[in-house]
Amino acid sequence: xxxxxxxxxxxxxxxxxxxxxxxxxxxGSGFRRYATYxxxxxxxxxxxxxxxxxxxxxxLAVAGAAGDVAGYDREQLATFVWAGQGLLAVILFWGWNDLxxxxxxxxxxxxxxxxxxxxxxxxxxxxxxxxxxGVSRLLPPVLVGPLFFPVHLPARWPTVxxxxxxxLLAVVLSFGCRFxxxxxxxxxxxxxxxxxxxxxxxxxxAGLYFPLPFLPDGLHLALRLATPFPxxxxxxxxxxxxxxxxxxxxxxxxxxxxxxxTMVALCRLVxxxxxxxxxxxxx
Length: 283
Hints:
Number of domains: 1
Strand content: under 5%
Strand order of the largest sheet: 1-2
Number of helices: 11
């Protein structure tokens, strides 16, 4: 009777690091989580589109008969408005309280027991959320706007990849700012004060209400270089409308990247300091 030899195929070697697979899995989970709120996404897209008409008519009125203001022509202003309305939900200035709520209830303790760092976990989830917002909230205003207003289309090939990179950096930068606001709950039981202050300041200084070049040149330059706020919205939109040269746009994205790295590093520092003195409420 012959012997039978079982052969076991060698394990397939994966060239993707376990950290990246975990990060991608969490991001995918975040995408699926936010994709369940389809009616909310539809209502939000409709609201952003309506406000897009109001903002566009207002800025075009500012441009007036001259058709040019602060370096923007009428087509660039229209693109600035409609792309900004679409990016509003992608970048997400406010409305995220997950970390603060878990700190207040004490559920943050379970997050600290997981093998993934809280900053990494929340960032991956937020990128998944941004991916869903890009499908459900960015496309409608961007598609509706050009039907009613002449818009500026990129004329230089580096603009599109540079804009995509700038939007990604803006999402991460916004997450870092929102994480730090939420993290004040480690020291404050009620974070509504910091959240209200953030809502008031971020919109005005990020270019949400009006393009920052409308301000005096000195103030505009100081905001660009000394604060992270323009990196949230103004810089991506300036890259898209090609208000400045490609070299200048690349320099602005580099400044945006520096602020993004700084904010994420600060998130990890604050989280580490908070863990040293963490007192779970009620236990």
